Amino acid sequence: MNATKFFGCFVVGPALRAGLGLNVIPGPEPRPPRRCGPTANPPSARRRLRFLPLWLGLAAAAAAPASDSIPAARPGKPLLLRGATVHTVTGADLPATDLLLRDGKIAAIGQKIPAPSDAAVVDVAGKHVYPGLISAVTGMGLTEHNSVRGTVDLAETGALNPNARAQPALNPDTDHIPVSRANGILTALSVPMSTGLIAGTSTLIRMDGWTWEDLTLRAAVALHVYWPSMAVNRDPGASRSAADQERTINENLRRLRDAFAAARAYARARESAAARTEFDSRWEAMLPVVRGELPVFVHATERKQIEAAVAWGRAEKLKITIVGGLDAWKVADLLKTHDIPVIVSPVLTLPLRREDPYDASYANPGHLHAAGVRFCIANDGSAEMGTMADRNLPYQAAKAAAHGLPPAEALKAVTIYPAQLLGVAAELGSIEVGKRATLIVTDGDPLEVATQVEQAYIDGARIDLSSRHTRLRDKYQQRHDQIKTGAR
What we know:
Blueprint: E1 3-6, E2 9-12, H1 14-19, H2 43-50, H3 52-63, E3 79-87, E4 93-102, E5 105-110, E6 120-123, E7 128-131, E8 133-138, H4 176-181, E9 185-190, E10 198-201, E11 203-206, H5 212-215, E12 216-218, E13 223-226, H6 242-271, H7 281-285, H8 287-290, E14 296-300, H9 303-316, E15 320-324, H10 332-337, E16 342-344, H11 360-371, E17 375-377, H12 385-388, H13 393-401, H14 407-412, H15 416-421, E18 439-442, E19 453-458, E20 461-462, H16 468-485
Parallel strand pairs: 3-6, 3-7, 8-9, 13-14, 14-15, 15-16, 16-17
Antiparallel strand pairs: 1-2, 3-4, 4-5, 7-18, 9-11, 10-13, 11-12, 18-19, 19-20
Helix pairs in contact: 11-13
C-alpha cells in the first residue's frame, strides 16, 4: 500500500499519493515525519489524515478491478438444443434428445421436437446436457483478494449478528463468479462467516447479473450458527487450564441459548397487542427462525459439536442442517433418527485425527448415503480460500464416488440434493419441464477432470464462459507462439 507507519501515525508515501492523484505537483522535498503524540501534526495535517481511510479504500478498490465478463441479456425468443444426451438426474438418461427453452424455463423435453418458427436452434449432437451444479456453502461475492482487506466482506465483528445479511454485500463483479461457472457451477449459497456464534443469513445466487439484486434467487435461505469448539486441551503445557477452557465452552453455549430465548421473548412481545416493544434489529431478524419459517444451518465439524448441536436443535424445536460434518459418519444413526441433513464440507481434506482412517473424509458421504442420511457435498466454505476453490466442486463429489458413494449419487450430491436442502428443488437441480433452464453442455461427465464445459445457460440465457483464467491462458499462449516462431 506504500503507507509507512510510525508508532500509530501513518505517513502516506509518494507512490501512493501519486497513484491516488495527491501531491503530484513537483515541489520541495517533504519534511521529515514528526514525532507521534497529541500534537504530532498541525491541524491541517490532521484534517488530511481524516481522509486516509478513504484513500486506502480507493487503493484497495484499484487492487481489485471489476471482472470483464458482461452479464447475459434475457432471452427474447425460444432456444432449441438439438440432439444431446440429456442427464435429467432424477430420471433416466435420454440419448439423442432435444430441449426447448422458453421464457427462462424448460418448456419441452423429447426427440425431434419441432422447432418454433422464431426459435434459435443449437446443434449439440454428441454432447451431454446436465443441470447446473450448485455450490451449497461458499463466500462467493463476499471476498476477492484475501491479502487486500478492503475486498473481504465475509463477517461482521462481534459474536451475535443475526441481522447481518449476505445479500447487500454481494459483489457481482467478482472474478470468482466467471471462474467457477466455467466449470459448471451456476448457482451458489453465499454464506456469512463468523467471528463468534451467530453470523447472519445466507443468500442463494444465480451466477450472472449486473447487481446484487440481479444475482439474488433467495434473499434469505438460512440463519447460520457456528457451534463453539467442544474440545478441551488437557496437555500440561497448554496455555489455559482445562477448567478455564470448559468455562469458556459453557459461556458460549449459554450466550447462544440466551440469544434464542431473547428472540422468542421478543416475538411474543411483538405479537402481544398490549406490549410495547422497542425495535431490535437482531431479534427482528430472528423472527422467521423462531416461527419455524427459516431453517438454521449449524456449522459443526467434530462429533461432540454435532451431538451437542442436534440436542440443542431438538430442545429449541428448530429445523437444523449440519454444515461441515466431517465426523458425521460417526453419528450417522443419530442424524438418521432425527432426520438431520448434512452439507458435507469439504470432502477433499485430511482426517481430523491421527487415528482416523486415511480416507475418513473421502468416505464420509458414502457412509451417510448407506445410513439413509440426507446430504449434499460442498467445498470448504468455512475458509476465505474456499471461494477461490469453488470451481473444484465437481471433484469433491468425484472423490466421494471413488470411496464408496455410487456415481449417480455423487452427481445428485452437487445438483438435486443441494437444491432440496436449500429449498429450491421445484426450480433447480434437475432437468424437468417447468424448471429453470439453468444447465450446462459438456463433452463428458462433469465430475471428470478432463471434461470441458462448452456451453452454460442460466434461466435460458447463454453465459459467457471466459474468465480471468482463460484470458491469462490466451495471453501467455501468444508468448509461447512467439518463442516457437522465433519472434522473440
